[in-house]
Structure formats: structure tokens, C-alpha cells
Amino acid sequence: MNTAETTPATSDLAPGGVLFRPSTGRVIAITSGKGGVGKTIVAANLAAALARRGLRVLVLDADLGLANLDVVLNLYPKLTLHDVFTGKCGLDDAIVKAPGGFSVLLAGSGMVEYSRLTPEVREDFLRLMGQVVPRYDVVLLDTGAGISDVVLFALSLASEILLVATPEPTTLTDAYATIKVLATQQQRQLVRLIVNQAARPGDGRAITAQLQSVLNRFVGAAPSAGVDKRPATVRLVHMGDIPADKAVKEAVMRRQLLLLQAPGSPAALAVAQIAGRLVDTVLRAHEHV
Description:
The chain is of the alpha/beta class. The protein has a single domain, classed as Rossmann fold. It is built from 12 helices and 8 strands. Strands 3-4-2-5-1-6-7-8 form an 8-stranded mixed β-sheet, sandwiched between helices. Strand 7, helix 9 and strand 8 form a beta-alpha-beta unit. It is globular and about 50 Å long.
């Protein structure tokens, strides 16, 4: 990977030409309780929005076996994460530049060996993260949906969780289940929520409040006599809504990033705002811890 692949152009710097760069790479997992909520589309466009701010960004396709990041980005990789794990190629050979100014490490599709968390998969992933995190300001893990052992392991590697949900009741039920598992098994105390395909302004805040109320009741209830104390309630942070927008479907059909095809669309502007909040509340905040 050469310098040209990781150094942002002057036009991509944050407003005023100020380049903010974290002292160490941050690992942020983007996940969902169920498939079909637009998680990978959000991940790819969020990466482009962060790259525009001058950050060195890598999207690692952690949806092992069912990867589709290559489809979203219209990429045809000759080498994938599978080739790195099996020793067919080196890491630098598999990392490619994506439209939008960020890098990607794509996973192959339909590989049964990655459908469960074996000691080999665990060790390969840990070794990989040790190599890529120091190279980038932000590593976005585009995980699979649900709560399989592979997904939960990928989430455990991240310091921050971005959960993508839609206003549909079944999606919210699965989102609650995912958050509950993260609170009980990984002792997560904070999960950041993005509501995609929002129909009305304010949907996301209402959904966040609704989920928080349920979590407060069933995950963080006070202990009673003879009952083990339940884990502390996980706190949900609403990062923003992405409105339902026909421009998203058009970009997907063209296999192009929304931020490149329709940068002025409501959905693209919403993603850019979320990227700004992520920089302000996560990346910059960590620098003062």
C-alpha cells in the first residue's frame, strides 16, 4: 500500500483545511439485528464521509461468508481476506482503494469455513487487526447481521458499536435482542444507533427512547432478594436519522456511492452529519480521555 492510497488530497480536508488525526486508530463496528436494513450501504457512505474530512479510513468486510461490500462499491477484487488468511497473498496486496477516497479489505462470499468461529478464524482475525489498526485513523468493521458467534467476536474487537435499524417493528425487535446480548455478554455500556429509512424527522429519537425504555426495564432492573444483579443498563445514543430517499435506491442500482452520485440528496447530507457527530463525539473525545 503506497502513500498515495492513505494520504488525503487537500480538497478532502475538513472545513478550513484543518486535518484532525487521532493519535491511534479507532475500531468502529457497524452492525444490525437483521439483514436488509442497509447496513453495508451506510458503512460505505460513512467511510466516504469520514475520508472527506481528511481521515485515513479502512472498511474491513467482516461479514465472513456472506460479504457484499464489493457489490455496493462495484469492485471486482482478485484477492480477498480469505487469500490473506490462507497465505496466498500479503495484506498490502488485498487492500484496495475504493471510490470515495477510503480503502477496503474485502471478504469472499459463500465460504462455509467462516460460518462459525473456530480457533483458526479467531487467531487470523486478531493477527489481522494488529496489522491494520496502526495504519489507519478509523477502521470500520462491516459485520454480519444478528448475534452469531462470528458476528459477536467481530463486535468484541471494536471500541464503538454503531447499530443500524429501521422503523419496522421486526427490525426493532432484533435490534433490542442484539443490544441485550452486547450488554450481557460483552458488558457494553453504550451503543450508538442510526435509524435508516426514517419516514419523518424525529423518528430516530422516538425509536431510541422506546428501545432505551425497554432496556431499562428488562436489562437493567434492580436486583431482588435471592436474584443475581443484572448488568448495568446499556445507554443508547442516537447518532442520527437517514431519511427514506429514492436517491439511495438509484445509487444502489448503479452500484455507486450515494455521496458521489447524489451528494446533495437528503440521505447523503444525513450521512455527512452522522460522520461529523462521529468525529466530534468519538474520535475527538478519545483524544482527551
